[in-house]
Amino acid sequence: MNRKILVSLFVGTTISVATLYLAFRNVPLPDLVTYMAAINYLWTLPAVALIFIGFSLRAVRWQFILGAAHRVDFRQAFHPMMIGFMINCVLPGRVGEFARPVVLNRKTDIPISTGLATVVVERLFDLIMLLSLFMAVSAGTIIDPEIGIDFGDYRLNRETLEAVFDGLLKISVVLFVCIFLVSFEKPREILHSVILKLPNALFLMGESGKARIRQKICRPIIQMIDNIASGMALVKKPKRVGICLILSIGIWAAASLSYYVFSLGCPQIRLTPAEITTVMVIICFAIALPSVPGFWGLWEAAGVFAMMLFGVAEKDAAGFTLANHAVQMFPVILIGLLSAWFSGVNIFQVSYQNKK
Questions:
Q1: Residue 215 DSSP one-character state
Q2: What is the value of pTM for the model shown?
Q3: Are 158 and 308 in contact (CB under 8 A)?
Q4: Residue 311 vs residues 135, 269, 286, 289: alpha-carbon distances, Å
Q5: Alpha carbons 48 and 331: distance in angstroms, whole number
Q6: CA distances from 352 to 48, 104, 290, 355 (A)
Q7: Residues 6 or more apart whose Cβ sits within 8 Å of residue 39
Q8: Can you point out the beta strands (E) in 36-84?
């Protein structure tokens, strides 16, 4: 394990502990411990089963996205995906998103740039679902502008959620435009032409120098763009897009049900499935903000804020949110470690590997 990874683990753990303190500084520790001890953890079993179902559907969705240009089986999609999610849980910077195509490349020879493009497409489906769910819960839930929780430099309230919504909506639009530019042949040909003509701007350089730049720099960039286009080939296949949308609904439904099932074993948490879905959506919006590995602290603060909207006491909301966070995260870490073992992958080596 190299020094950079050790430093990342140390910094990430330290910040996670500090952010958990910020999230729970107003909740007496004895009350939190008492609540955690009162949870019926038998409900963890069906909740974890639903989490596994959700990630299995994610693997099938990624398999469909990859399959638009490269044939992969379920195992080849599942293991790299779980390794990537596991790395996101333990290391800062969301490096798992970049590690996933590296692992895929080692097992299938799919170019890393192609694999990364498919991850972008997959995340776009999640953005579409999250934005749709937020609009749905906003229509059915009154978010009191007077309710808010201070967390570090953030104040989690209705204004913050609306700002995150606007930001994610803009990101979605940018991704749509970028996918259009590289996925379809005509705009991609125009982009190729522009790249090849860029050396002409170097007026003081001779033709031989410009030719070397085209060969050494411009053409590799064009090759990377073509690899990215291969990863985004799904957009030209409406049937696959429709299947991925259906799978996305299943993924988010399984996640919401896992929250709800676990809540059945938690004292004083009597929220409906719709209310639990609102809690999940607000948590997902909050962790879109810059955060620590595994979203510790910010997840808890968002969960407490969301449950306060439905009249849940702060200490009960804190206990449920912390326990549910662990239920959602630890199985992912365990499955990711098992996937790395089955695949023979050194997760620390691929975490910061940078290939072209």
A1: I
A2: 0.82
A3: no
A4: 22, 10, 20, 25
A5: 7
A6: 29, 15, 19, 10
A7: 265, 266, 267, 319, 320, 323
A8: none
Dihedral of CA atoms 14, 20, 23, 25 in degrees, nearest 10, equals -90
Name the helix (H) or strand (E) containing 339. helix 314-343
* Amino acid letter, 242: G
**Other residues' Cβ atoms within 10 Å of the Cβ of residue 2:** 11
Checking DSSP bridges between strand 149-151 and strand 154-156, what pairing results, if any?
A: antiparallel
Strand locations in the chain (E): 149-151, 154-156
Residue ranges of alpha helices (H) inside 232-313 are 238-263, 273-286, 298-308
* Domain range annotation of the chain: 41-351
DSSP character at residue 111 = -
Are 50 and 261 in contact by the 8 Å Cβ rule? The answer is: yes
Tokens of 80: 């790299």
Tokens 């997760």 correspond to 347
- Helix-strand-coil split of the chain, %, nearest 5: 80, 0, 20
Number of residues in the chain: 356
Which residue, 27, 40, 90, is CA-closest to 323? Answer: 40
What are the tens digits of pLDDT across the range 18-68? 555 555 555 557 777 888 899 999 999 999 999 999 999 999 999 999 887
Looking at residue 200, its pLDDT comes to 84
Distance CA 304, CA 151 (A): 11
pLDDT, tens only, 128-167:
999 999 888 877 777 777 777 776 666 777 888 888 888 8
Tokens of 242: 């429709």
